[in-house]
From TrEMBL:
Keywords: Membrane, Transmembrane, Transmembrane helix
Claim: RNA-binding is one of the keywords in the record: no
InterPro entries tied to this protein: DoxX (IPR032808)
Main localization (coarse): membrane
Source organism phylogeny: Bacteria, Bacillati, Actinomycetota, Actinomycetes, Kitasatosporales
Membrane-protein topology: Multi-pass membrane protein
Keyword Signal: no
Name under which the protein is recorded: DoxX family protein
Coiled coil: none
Compartments in which it is found: Membrane
Chain ranges passing through the membrane: 56-85, 97-117
Taxonomic superkingdom: Bacteria
Amino acid sequence: MNLALWIAAGLLAAVALLGGVTKTFVPRERLAAVHGGGWTGEVGAGFVKTLGVLELLAAAGLVLPAALGTAPVLVPVTAVCWMLLMTGAMITHGRRGEFALVLLNLGYLALAAFIAWGRVI
């Protein structure tokens, strides 16, 4: 079980890291031109960068507390926060008719739920 939780946390952290770096450092205009990134053209650049920073923090929060043995309770807290972020992403993509991305975000949400549940019990 512990190995499965580490794998899930590592995969989700990689997703969060990639999304965070992209949203934080790639210009909003380039993001808006990519499939699934059209929503970035409808919001402010500060909002996109804020989401990127939150995703970078999530990447760290899913792995580092447990790996370092310092405040491991932050792992399930981060996973729950990721679930909230994915709920927002599903609503955004659903409103835009991007249902494949809704399913992808639902998969990320389920992975985060598994991590939250597994690290609490």
